[in-house]
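Page 42, continued from yesterday. The earlier attempt failed because a stray header line got pasted into the input along with the sequence. Redoing it now with the clean sequence only.
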Amino acid sequence: MWIFASKEQRDRRLALLKCLPCPHCKHTGALNRHGFLKGYDELNFKQKAIRAIRVFCSDRANAGGCGRTFSVWIADKVKRLFLDTDSLWQFLEQAATTGSKSQAFRDLQSSLSDSAPYRIWKRFLQAQAAIRTALTAIGPPPKHVHQDGVPSPAQSAAQGTIAHLKAAFQDSSSNPIAAFQNATQRFFI
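This time it went through. Structure tokens are written below.
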């Protein structure tokens, strides 16, 4: 899997497929575009839209590849999630701050069901260990300080993760979730 910050970066990389090694077998010269991954997203919820591009390492004829495929994503999409990273960040940040997942989700004005924010929140909580481990490799977690200047632990694990994301990617032009996916080459949740 490859994750790129923009479509332009992705398209520049895909134009050079024949010159790039396969991420699985490391063979050069066997990569071909192999279709699309389609699904529903926020901007196009009535019909399926292209969410990622498939790449095939050809093992046909004398190509010498491994026959495996992988996907090429843009950092603003999250695998198996209808929301893009901007909406997901807005939801998680507000839900962690206010404690109201349903209100945070209503503010998005999404067409998803009433139970969706709870499923998304559960995925976020289950991914905490992996997210925090990856973030620690990028930078240390921020120190939380009360008004009296005394360091204190985060109020909750979710708030700590949100604060760590903000601190780790404060200089990024994209939102912290997209920056996380691009920097770590893994999906957020």
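Notes: DSSP finds seven helices and six strands in the chain.
Reminder to self: strip header lines before submitting.
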